[in-house]
Amino acid sequence: AQTVTQSQPEMSVQEAETVTLSCTYDTSESDYYLFWYKQPPSRQMILVIRQEAYKQQNATENRFSVNFQKAAKSFSLKISDSQLGDAAMYFCALTTTSGTYKYIFGTGTRLKVLA
Amino acid sequence: EAGVVQSPRYKIIEKKQPVAFWCNPISGHNTLYWYRQNLGQGPELLIRYENEEAVDDSQLPKDRFSAERLKGVDSTLKIQPAELGDSAVYLCASSIRPSSYEQYFGPGTRLTVT
Predict the structure, then answer these.
(1) Which residues of B have a CB under 8 Å from any CB of A?
(2) Which of A5, A71, B6, B94 is the most exposed place for a label (fewest CB within 10 A)?
(3) Are A21 and A106 in contact (CB under 8 A)?
(4) A98: which residues sit within 8 A by CB, 6+ positions away?
(5) How near does any CA of chain A get to the CA of B54, in Å?
């Protein structure tokens, strides 16, 4: 069975600073995808970044980057130059490529951005 | 491009009443997902459709929940009768195909059962 664990229920960061959100996962599959989704108070989930397990290079999207440690089964999200609009719930998610296409989500981390 | 549309956004009902949620996926997206998100939790898959076929409904409580996607486009999720524990946000998502892995979510329907 696949699991995703986010051990930080809430994080705070000063505007313009950098914050890292943690995620660990477990799967017996060798090929899978990992995602970070953002869910602002309006509730619409938005894809922030994704990482293919077979790629060694860490994914980056503008101010968002990941630190993917496959052996440790760790997948953290770094937000640089934090902005007020980054305040949201962040969910880490895993899906395998074996055919079930089922997303497993973590419990989320609430990010507060302080002005 | 229009996103995933869901209605209603909010619904308050008394227990034992029926309720239905509607979802219209992004045009051209063959795969449609219904999730339930309890307070303080991540979404949990209820059912996945490939076109009009339900290919994964293993987490759908079939005694009271039903879903349909008759023409392979929009979908309806129904609960009858609703219970207090059904209070949650019901999210719809779509993707071009399951192997695209990237899902696009709607704004959700917040259900409160009193």
Answers:
(1) 3, 31, 33, 40-45, 48, 56, 89, 91, 93, 98-99, 101-108, 110
(2) A71
(3) no
(4) A29, A31
(5) 13
Determine the average pLDDT of the residues in B56-85.
93
| One-letter identity of residue A58 | N
pLDDT tens digits along B18-44 = 999 999 999 999 999 999 999 889 999
CA dihedral A39, B32, A58, A66 (to 10 degrees): 20
Q: Which two tokens stand for residue B36?
A: 């339930």
Find the CB nearest A101 among B48, B104, B106. B48
Please say if the pLDDT value at position A87 is more than 80: yes
How many residues in chain B?
114
Tokens 């497993």, residue located: A104
CA nearest neighbour of A10 among A115, A110, A113: A110
